[in-house]
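Workshop exercise sheet. Pairs work together: one partner reads the sequence aloud, the other fills in the structure field after running the prediction. Swap roles for the next sheet.
Pair: D.N. / O.F.
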Amino acid sequence: MPIIEFPPVDIADEQGLLAIGGDLHHDSLLLAYQSGIFPWPISEEYPLAWFSPPQRGVILQENIRFNRSLKKFVKKCNWKISFNQDFLGVIKECQKVHAKSNDGTWITDEIIDGYYNFFHQGLAYSVEVKNENGDLIGGLYGVKIGHFLSGESMFFKETNASKLALLGILSILIEEGIPFLDTQMVTPITESFGATETPRIDFIKAITPLFNKGTLNLPTTSIKASELAIKLSF
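Structure field:
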């Protein structure tokens, strides 16, 4: 059965841990994101954990930046960027990458099943980056509810491939006038694109109107990185 309610977010501990247990039914995920909460399993050996950190990582549209080396790379790159063409492939590659980390992967099989179902409900998305041979070399997946967008995880097999995936979804923010991308936390990669932290109370106030906007339709055709550079006036 899906979760029908979460505790108030202000009772989360200092790391943001709010609740343990529940499931990843699409109703549970929908309610979580609408409440400023996300699942982050500790491991497959422990019950599902739900978080709402006191400081939330976001990339504000007004703060988006692209460094010179990335611009130079993208201008000459013929890799292709696409949306929603291989969600399962992207999330499974993200799982493999995190499995090699010291802490192990938080992308459990339960997470894959839950978000893949969410994707089929039109509430999640993927960005794929493919090289000249058509191989999937990078990607990102996230949540898409109304005009709310999150970035959940990325992977790369070739240098800059995950950055191109992030560039792809940030281009949608710019084009559609979406105020920010929820990154949940600030990492070195997201910080290089302008990610900052915002207090939880401000984050929840900001996301509320985004859920009520119409469905955001992502491009159905791929685009070369060099063509995207022109579109973004690099």
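Discussion prompt: The first helix runs from residue 26 to 34. What would you look at next?
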